[in-house]
Amino acid sequence: QVQLVESGGGLVQTGGSLRLSCVASGRTFSNYAMGWFRQAPGKEREFVATISRNVYSTYYADSVKGRFTISRDNAKNTVYLQMNSLKPEDTAVYYCARGLRFGVERDHYDYWGQGTQVTVSS
């Protein structure tokens, strides 16, 4: 069983920054792509960013491109999401997930964390 634990969420003003972390259990972290998704109240969970297992490839949703950066440290079993220039519309619960493939669809991911709340005040 794989466990993913997110941290780093909080309340920030518009234009501020946060860095989310997600630590994975197990010894096969480097074999999988990792992704970040988010879900705002009353909305479906949406793709934010993904990173390949070898760190060579990343992909972002258009809404966060140029503001968010996904990275990973395979030695620490950790994936990060650096979020800059935050906007109120970024307010959501953010989830990390383990990817069976480098993709943007929810069904490409098999394990999910419990989520961390990010709130951006205007």
Characterization of this structure:
The protein is mainly β and 122 residues long. It contains no helices and 11 strands. The chain has strands at 4-7, 10-13, 18-24, 33-39, 46-51, 58-60, 68-73, 78-83, 92-99, 109-112, 116-121. Strands 2, 4, 5, 6, 9, 10 and 11 form a 7-stranded mixed sheet that branches. Strand 5 and strand 6 form a beta hairpin.
Helix count? 0
Helix content estimate: under 10%
> Which strand-content bin applies to the residues?
over 45%
> Which value, in Å, is the CA radius of gyration?
13 Å
Mean pLDDT: 96
**Helical/strand content category:** mainly beta
Topology:
Blueprint: E1 4-7, E2 10-13, E3 18-24, E4 33-39, E5 46-51, E6 58-60, E7 68-73, E8 78-83, E9 92-99, E10 109-112, E11 116-121
Parallel strand pairs: 2-11
Antiparallel strand pairs: 1-3, 3-8, 4-5, 4-9, 5-6, 7-8, 9-10, 9-11
Relevant terms:
4-stranded antiparallel β-sheet, globular, 7-stranded mixed β-sheet, single chain, mainly beta, 122 residues, 11 strands
